[in-house]
């Protein structure tokens, strides 16, 4: 029996999953990785990330035995991972959660640069994306850029360390330098960001995705075929079977990502989100990857001393509306990036009294995140079916709440969806025929409750009004 392995190098966890030919999960190995957060900055140790990849891959191949048919690779997007010619770190990786470039981005907003880049690429920059981060480094740490051979993304660093091949793909390149019509870096965009002289740092775009054999020892996979697939958001879309125009995916993870498959670029309206190029020309994912997500709930749980195992019970203990408690869940130090860009936006908690309970606070937080999801999906143009995945779906009560707030059925896709999508991308690239429909079939469908859906439709309007007021206050700072 052939084994297919998907690797997902995430922000807080590195995972590897083994699947059989029918897409059934055989085994999963995972290792946590640290994130250094301080003074609005977020950095990661590349050697730690790659070490975690090596560990999970070695453990997985040792446990499943037998031949590995192929390996698909995915990982977190955005940020800047400066490496030398061997793919080794020049400095710590700057994460997509980093906020150090917010003042530079403010200036670009005021001068119209952000809007002009969006009209060209369909991607709205935020502090942690490569454009502002590279420009910040060029101004404050030029020696680091001088010493680097490449400014890559997480999975590209891993791929180079595993195979010796330096390359990225069209999905990672989509933010913010890729012209989505030409599927190539835009010299005009680089010039407008003051980065034309740093163009040599950008890795070659492999279209379709790059393939090679694993050459790194200590991985248990020497000689195995591997593909440097799309990054985690489009990989999850593949793993959830979201490819038909109008269909969407909601990923309830560290960040809250809303994706809708589209066959046309929408470059008008408020610059926000991005158009992720896929392996098919003329096909994109309209993405609204919000900063808000499970990290917001995790913070509230830590502050209140509530365990994850208690969430379902507390959600059931408070009614819709949480007795008037409201949470705008924008806890990220770099503000929000979708479906709008507001670097100084911060979380707000209102309607609390001495009568409020922990259940009210937990439910209000989960409702606020679900309202943010509705905002993102609306802005992305959802018109078809909706799949949902991610760590947040492990809470059945929260998943039902999402269905009620969104007012539509949810196709539940369980397991390591990103790793599954990475395998499917690798199989497509290598010409290996897999039953994609079987691999991506939902495990359940959750229907909304009509009464609660009506309640939340009105509550959503209130959420938008409070959000507009909060954004106005953030701009006034």
Number of helices: 16
Average residue-wise pLDDT:
95
Shape: globular
Low-confidence stretches: none
Main sheet specs: 7 strands, mixed
The helicity comes to 25-40%
* Rg over CA atoms: 21 Å
How many strand units?
Answer: 24
> Given this structure, which CATH class of the largest domain is correct?
Alpha Beta
In whole angstroms, the N-to-C terminal distance is: 61 Å
How much of the sequence lies in strands comes to 15-25%
CATH topology heading of the largest domain: Nucleotidyltransferase, domain 5
CATH architecture of the largest domain: 2-Layer Sandwich
Written description of the protein model:
By secondary structure, the chain is an alpha+beta fold. The chain has two domains: 3-234, ATPase, nucleotide binding domain (Nucleotidyltransferase, domain 5, 2-Layer Sandwich); 290-412 and 447-476, 2-Layer Sandwich (Nucleotidyltransferase, domain 5), CATH 3.30.420. 38% of the residues lie in helices and 21% in strands. The protein contains 16 helices and 24 strands. It has helices at residues 46-64, 102-111, 113-121, 130-140, 142-147, 154-163, 170-173, 187-192, 232-239, 294-304, 311-317, 358-380, 396-406, 417-430, 436-439, 450-476, and strands at residues 3-9, 13-19, 25-32, 36-38, 41-44, 68-75, 81-83, 93-94, 150-152, 168-169, 178-179, 184-185, 205-206, 211-213, 225-228, 248-252, 256-262, 274-277, 284-290, 326-328, 348-350, 386-389, 410-412, 444-446. Strands 18-19-17-16-22-23-24 form a seven-stranded mixed β-sheet, sandwiched between helices. A six-stranded mixed β-sheet has the order 3-2-1-6-15-14. A three-stranded antiparallel β-sheet has the order 4-5-8. The radius of gyration is 21 Å and the shape is globular. The mean pLDDT is 95. Belongs to the FGGY kinase family. InterPro entries: ATPase_NBD, Carb_kinase_FGGY, FGGY_C, FGGY_Carb_Kinase, FGGY_N.
């Amino acid at each position: 029996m052939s084994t297919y392995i998907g690797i997902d190098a995430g922000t807080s966890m590195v995972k590897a999953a083994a699947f059989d030919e029918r897409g059934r999960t055989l085994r999963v190995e995972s290792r946590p990785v640290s994130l250094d957060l301080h003074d609005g900055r977020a950095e990661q140790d590349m050697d730690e990330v790659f070490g975690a990849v090596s560990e999970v891959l070695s453990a997985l191949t040792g446990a499943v035995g037998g031949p590995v048919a192929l390996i698909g690779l995915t990982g977190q997007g955005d940020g800047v991972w400066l490496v030398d010619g061997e793919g080794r770190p020049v400095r710590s990786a700057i994460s997509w959660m980093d906020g150090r470039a917010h003042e530079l981005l403010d200036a670009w907003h005021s001068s119209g640069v952000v809007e002009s880049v969006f009209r060209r690429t369909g991607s709205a920059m935020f502090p942690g994306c490569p454009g502002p981060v590279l420009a910040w480094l060029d101004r404050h740490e030029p020696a680091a850029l001088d010493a680097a051979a490449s400014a890559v993304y997480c999975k590209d660093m891993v791929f180079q360390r595993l195979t010796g091949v330096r390359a990225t793909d069209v999905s990672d390149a989509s933010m913010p330098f890729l012209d989505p019509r030409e599927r190539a870096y835009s010299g005009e965009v680089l010039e407008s960001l003051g980065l034309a002289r740093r163009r040599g740092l950008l890795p070659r775009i492999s279209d379709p995705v790059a393939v090679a054999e694993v050459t790194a020892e200590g991985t248990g996979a020497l000689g195995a075929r591997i593909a440097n697939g799309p990054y985690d958001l489009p990989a999850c879309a593949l793993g959830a079977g979201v490819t038909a125009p109008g269909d969407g995916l909601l990923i309830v993870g560290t960040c809250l990502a809303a994706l809708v498959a589209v066959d046309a670029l929408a470059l008008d309206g408020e610059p926000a989100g991005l158009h992720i190029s896929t392996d098919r020309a003329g096909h994109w994912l309209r993405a609204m990857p919000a900063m808000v997500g499970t990290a917001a709930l995790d913070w509230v749980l830590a502050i209140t001393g509530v365990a994850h195992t208690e969430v379902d019970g507390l959600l059931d203990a408070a009614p819709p509306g949480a007795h008037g408690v409201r949470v705008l869940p924008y806890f990220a130090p770099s503000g929000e990036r979708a479906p709008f860009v507001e670097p100084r936006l911060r979380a707000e908690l209102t309607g609390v009294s001495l009568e409020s309970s922990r259940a009210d606070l937990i439910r209000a937080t989960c409702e606020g995140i679900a309202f943010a999801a509705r905002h993102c999906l609306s802005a992305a143009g959802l018109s078809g079916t909706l799949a949902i995945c991610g760590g947040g779906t492990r809470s059945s009560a929260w998943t039902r709440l999402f269905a009620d707030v969104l007012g539509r059925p949810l196709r539940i896709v369980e397991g390591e969806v990103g790793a599954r999508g990475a395998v499917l991308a690798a199989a497509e690239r290598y010409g290996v025929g897999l039953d994609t429909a079987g691999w991506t079939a939902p495990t359940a469908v959750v229907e909304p409750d009509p009464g609660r859906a009506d309640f939340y439709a009105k509550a959503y309007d209130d959420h938008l009004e409070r959000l507009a007021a909060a954004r106005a206050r953030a701009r006034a700072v």
